[in-house]
Amino acid sequence: MQKNKLERYGSASNSRSHKLKGYGSVSGEREAGHVYTVSEITQKIKTLLEEKVGEVWVEGEISNFNSGPNGHFYFSLKDQSCIIKAAMFFYANRGLKFKLENGLKVLCFGKVNVYGPHGQYQIVVERVELKGIGAQQLAFEQLKKKLAQEGLFDQAHKRPLPLMPFSVGIVTSAKGAAVRDILQILKKGAPCVDALIRSVRVQGEYAAGEICSAIEELNSFGGVDLIIVSRGGGSSEDLWSFNEEAVARAVYGSRIPVISAVGHQINTTLSDLAADIFVETPSAAAKIIVDRKNALLSEIADWKHRLDFSMKNAINGLGADLIALKHALKSPSDRLLEKQQFLDELLAGLNYNIRHSLELAKERSSSLIQRLGVLSPLAVLSRGYSLSMIIPKEEILKESSQLKAGDRLKTVLHRGSFTSIVQEVFRDEGKTGI
Amino acid sequence: MKEKPVFEEDLRKLQKIVDELSSGKLTLGESLKKYEEGVKIAQACSFTLGEAQRKVELLMKKDGKFSLEKFDDTDEGEEA
Question: Which pLDDT tens digit goes with each residue over A116-132?
Fold first, then answer.
């Protein structure tokens, strides 16, 4: 029967008459050559598809996803070569734990139907299951993305831990290993720290709610410097409460800084991401406090050292000043001697200066006398020159124009003098070289 | 008693004193006073951190009211 049907579908396009005949034989009532209206043929196809194909499971990838204003989803399912329209109405999709989105590989269960107004066939999806990735994992990834977009994991929101948390609130099960690990490390390493435990269930359906209220209660109780939200290791299902949106928001919303310490290395929960600091184990959370205490202690020791050093420096500096001042201080008699010596020095200087000036003056006068001797006319006469004057005017004779024949002259020699009478005068005969 | 604001205030004071003293601008009298104060604070802070008087309590809430219960952390109870 099934085989026959397929054969008929397969050959449907071969010839109209054949097709009509074929359909005719299926419906058993139409005659060959009957002309359908569009509605008629659509109705026929609708009946055929909806009855003969009906409910199916279809595997494919979601594309063209969009949700209508009434909360209905419309999308396509596709594989490498084909595509089919799909609709998932609100009544069916409201129970979905994850969001449908393009690219998601899914298994859909639904009913094929025909939507006459668009001439389209589609599958009306009732249920969706994920292929590959688990539904919980997908929900986790989607929630993580959403919270990240809201900024819950932003570094900018992370608050610094208090300088020293003296009172630590612990949100975990009072019966669990986590609380014992934390307390033990604090007891050994930082016994100055008080612990305030708010016991909660850390798995199961009520865990998330209890964790959220515990965080809020520790905030409102007061006096708590730091909150550790913690749980020991377990399967990812065991840790699931710490992935719930409400827990992530409670951790983010805490006014007191939060350390999240859930599970082991491999599990990073949304609570971890929303916390101010997250560590891999409960012990590591306690160790942060111990380390902080030790760091503070050594810092204080260092400061104390610097205090001692500065004080010693100050005292040594003052000692050195004292010695310098002592040197500067002198007795009055020392001072008198000093002045006397200074005076002696001045006197010695004075004597020298006077002697020096006298010598300078003597030297100067003898050189002047020498120069005077050189300039004396008598000195010239000693070298053979003579000096003549006209008598009686005693005018020194320099050129022949002063003379006329018959003038009387007096001539002075180096030694002695004589008079003479001019016989003849020669003018303008140039300089007479000797 | 370890009041957190006091402790943090003390630490800030201590740091300030250390800075002032190492600046070398104080008189001997001032230096001595600061030094004494600084040493006192350092000792107090170290003492606070070294204290072993811790409390471990369970915070309970009943009918909207908080109460504290002693928590016995020496108890090696069942594993979770």
Answer: 888 899 999 999 988 87
pLDDT of A185 > 90? The answer is yes
Question: How many domains is chain B built from?
Answer: 1
Q: Chain B partners of A232 at a C-beta cutoff of 8 Å?
A: 80
The pLDDT, as a whole number, for residue A355 is 86
Scanning every residue of chain B, which has its alpha carbon at the shortest distance from the alpha carbon of A163?
B8
Judge: B35–A307 Cβ closer than 8 Å, yes or no: yes
Residue corresponding to tokens 């989803």: A73
Assess if residue B8 is contained within a domain: yes
In a domain, B79, yes or no: no
Q: CA A195, CA A182: separation in Å to the nearest integer?
A: 9
Question: Which pTM was predicted?
Answer: 0.58
Q: For residue A158, with 0-12 CB atoms within 10 Å meaning exposed, 13-18 middle and 19 or more buried, which class applies?
A: middle
Closest residue to B18, CB basis, from A167, A176, A307: A307
Tokens of A160: 């610094």
The answer to whether A166 contacts B31, with C-beta atoms less than 8 Å apart, is no
Beta-bridged to residue A88, according to DSSP, are A73
Contacts of A307 in chain B (CB under 8 A): 17-18, 21, 35, 38-39, 42
pLDDT exceeds cutoff 80 at A19: no
Q: In Å, how far is B66's CA from the nearest CA of chain A?
A: 8
Q: What average pLDDT does the segment A87-113 reach?
A: 90
What residues in B contact A290, CB-CB < 8 Å?
Answer: none
Q: CB of A409 within 8 A of CB of A419?
A: yes
Highest-confidence segment of A27-31, A199-203, A332-336, B30-34: A199-203
Chain A touched by B56 (CB under 8 Å):
yes
- Say if B55 falls within a structural domain: yes
Question: Which range has the worst mean pLDDT, A85-94, A384-393, B66-75?
Answer: B66-75
Asked whether residue B80 is domain-assigned, the answer is no
ipTM: 0.82
Strand residues in A157-218 grouped as ranges (E): 167-172, 194-199
**Domains of chain A, each with CATH number or no CATH:** 1-35 (no CATH), 38-132 (2.40.50.140), 148-294 (3.40.50.2300), 376-434 (no CATH)
* Residue A393, both tokens: 């005017």
